[in-house]
Amino acid sequence: MIQIKRSFAISKKDLRIYYNKGPVVIQGILFPIMLFLAFTIGREILPIYIISGLMTMVLFLTSTSIGPVVFPWETRQKTLERLITCPISIRTILLGNVWSSFLFGCIFSTVPLILGIIFLGLWKEMNLLILVPGILLAAFSFSSFSLILSVPPTDTPASTMILTILIKFPLIFVSPLFMPISLNPITFISPLSYFLDILNVGLGSPSAFGSLGLFFDFGYLIIFGFVFLFLAFILHAKVLQKRFKG
Length: 246
What we know:
mainly alpha, 72% helix, elongated
């Protein structure tokens, strides 16, 4: 319990320091806007798919924007060494990164939903009992995934940004954003498809995966999040010493 409280202190520090850094602003805020315009301009898309697609993209990009930056930046500034000498474990530091990314993603992903409620009248079919748990679970899963992107022991944030682009954007483009989910095997690769399905159901559309679709969606995101979280614990512990060499 003490380590959990300390991880909250680390997340507060991360949010205060990194939310306005260039890589975070670009990948977490500017990219969703540009991709949204690229996907939607000149196309007739139902309001429900506009909002669910935008929320999925915003949550994924914002909740994975802080995690890849923290470790390279801390390594360069020599503050990671200071953290390691404190009575906290590497897992506590990683959990702090998860909480900061989690909060960052949740806050920004609600903006499209609010706009949809105000301007598109989506409140009529909206089910918060599906939407809220879905947003929270997806934010946790994507934040845990972002820790993997910061595993390479580099002190250059640009290096991890290149890696994140090579991994994150293919996941976006294989996901059926702003359209119904087709049962195409390639869509199953991306975790965004499962969160998108949760949002579609929460906004009044039937699940693309049948009557048990929500159980499938939530189950996949739970497995996805915890597998990458524990994998991040193992990999970061192995490369930690390499960050202090040179």
